[in-house]
User: Fold this.
Amino acid sequence: MANDIQLAKAANNIRILAASMVEKAKSGHPGGAMGGADFVNVLFAEFLRYDPDNMLYPYRDRFFLDPGHMSPMLYSVLALAGHYSMEDLQQFRQWGSVTPGHPEVDFLRGVENTSGPLGQGHAMGLGAAIAERFMVARFGEWMAHKTYIYISDGAVQEEVSQGVGRIAGNLGLSNIIMYYDSNNIQLSTKVDEVDTEDVAMKYRAWGWNVLEIDGTSIPEIRAALKKANEPTDKPTIIIGKTVMGRGAVTAEGESFEHKVSTHGQPLSAAGADYAATIANLGGDAENPFTIFNESKAVYEDRAIMLRAEMVERKKIEAEWRAANPALARKLDMFLNGKLPQIDYRSIEMKPDQATRAASATVLGVYGEKVENMIVASADLSNSDKTDGFLKKTKAFTKGDFSGKFFQAGVSEFTMACIMNGMALHGGVIPACGTFFVFSDYMKPVVRLSALMRLHVIYIWTHDSFRVGEDGPTHQPVEQEAQIRLMEHLHNHSGERSMVVLRPADAEDTIAAWKIALEEQRPVALILSRQNIKNLPTLSASRRDEAMQSQKGAYIVVDSAKPKVVLVASGSEVATLVEGAELLKKEGINVRVVDVPSEGLFRDQPKSYQEAVIPSDAIRYGMTSGLPVTLLGLVGSLENIHGLDHFGHSAPYKVLDKQFGYNGETVYNEVMKLLGK
Assistant:
C-alpha cells in the first residue's frame, strides 16, 4: 500500500496534468480540478473497486462526477490508473479526442456518466444506487457495490439536489457515498455571496450520515472513506473543505489559491503563472505531461490489489452460479438486455378508451412478464396510469427493493435524472410517468439521455387541450413540437436520438409499447386523457394493422388514387376519419394516415414514404399542438389545423367545438383547399 508521501506526489501529478490540459487547450476549468485532486486520488488509489482488465465488470463500484467542468481531474486520475494516455490528455477539448471538455460516458475508460449541467450527475448516481439495490434484492449481496458521487457548490445549489437528498435519505441508500467539494468558489462569485445555508444540517435532516473534513488532508480523506464504508442504513455525505486552484502561484512564488478567476480559464489567463505553478507542484513546465514514478508505483500497486480482489469476487460469483443456475440465467438476461417473449396478440384490450388506460393494460402485462423493468411516477401513478404496473408489484421502501415501482414524489426533474442513472448502471429497464405538460421540467434530462443513448421510456399522459377543466396550465400546446425535435436531432451513432410515439387508439398503444420496450434509445409515449374511438381497419385485424406503427406511419383509411391525404397522430386521427367520411359522401377520394412517429417514418425507404404520403397529393394535417408539429409531413402551415394559442378551462368537448376539432372542420378546410 502506498504511503502518504507517494499519495501527495500523485495528487500533485493530477494537478499538473489538469492545469496543463487546460493551458494547452487554451480553455477549461483548472481551479476546481486542482482542488479536488486529493480526494479523487485517495478514492481511486485505495477504495474504488473495479476490474482494471474489464472496465465493464457489472458489479464494479461506480464513480459519478457531477461537475463536468472538472473533467481534467477525472481524465488525469484515470490516466494514472492506465485508462488514458498522455497523448489523450494533450488532445483535451479537440476534435475527435476521447477527452472532451465535459465528460461523455465512456465505460471502457472509466467514465460512468455524461456530465456538465450541474445537478444531473449526482442524481444519476442516485439512480445507479437504486438499480444496485434492485439487483442485489434479486440475486444476493455477493454482487453489492458502492456508488461514489462527486458534487460541488454549484450542484448543491441546483434544486435537483433537494430531490436527491430527500429520496436517498428516505430510501436509506447506504450504498451511496457522496463527496461534497466545498471550496466556496463559483464561476463568477464566491458561494457565500449567494448561499449561507447550513449544508450539513440540511443533509442530516434528510437522514444522511454527515462527515466534515479537511479535503486537502490525505489522512482525513482516508478516515472519512473508511467510516463511510462501514455498515449503516443511511447514505453518507463527506463535506470536504478544499482549495480552489490548490498549488497555483504567481511568477514571484506567491500563493494564487482561492481565486474565482481560476475557475473557468487557464491559469495564465487567470493571473497565476503557469510555469511557476507547475514547478511549485514538482513538475517541469517544458514537459508537464508526465506520470511521476511515485504515481506509477501507487497505481501499479492498486492494480495488483484489484486483480487479486477480482479473482476472489469471480470465485464467489462462480460458486453462486453453480448453486443457483436458474437465477444465473435470469441475471444474464437482465445484464444482456434480453427480453422475455410477450404475446401481444393475446392482450385483452377494451376498445374506444383513452390511450393512458390502454397503456395501463400493457403495463399490467409487463408488470408480470418483464422482471427487470422499473416504473416510476411523480406522484401521479393513479392519473398517468402507471398504476397498471404498480398493481402487479409494490413500491420500493427503505430496506426493501423487492418490488419494481419507484414513487418519486413531486419531482419530475429528479425522477428523470434517476432514470438515466438506472439505465447507466445497467440490468434494468427504467420508465417514468407524468403529465405531458410537465415534460418541460424534464427536457434537459431527456437531452442527456438522448446524448448518452440510454434506453429510458418516458410516459407522458394528458396529451392535449383535452385535459379540459384543468385549464391552460395543464394543457400542452407547444410540448409535442418541442419533443419531436429530438427525432430530428441525431446522436453520435448517427441515428435519430429519440423515438417519439403518439398512438391514435388503444391498439396503437400496444404497438407503441412494443416499440418502446424493444428500442435501445430513449422513447417517449404521448397518451390521451380522454377516450378515443378505435380506428377502422382495412383488413381483418386492427391489431395487426396497428403494428405498422413500427414504420412510423401507415394508412388507416384509403381510396383509389386519393386526391387528398389527411395526416395526424394521436386523438386527431379519429377526427380525420370523421372528416373523411363526409368528404367521401362528396365523391372525394381521401386517404387518412396515422403518423405516431415522424422519425421512424423518415427512416423508412423513400419508396414507402411516397407510397403512404404521395408528394403529388394535396396534404392536410390536424394537430392539437402547434401547426409546425406537422409541417415536415404536410409541407405548408396553411394546410394544417392546429393551435397557435394557449387553451382554456372548460370540458374538452366544449373545447373541441370552440377550437374546431371535429369532422365538419376537416371537411370544410379540405373543401377550401380543393377550391370547392
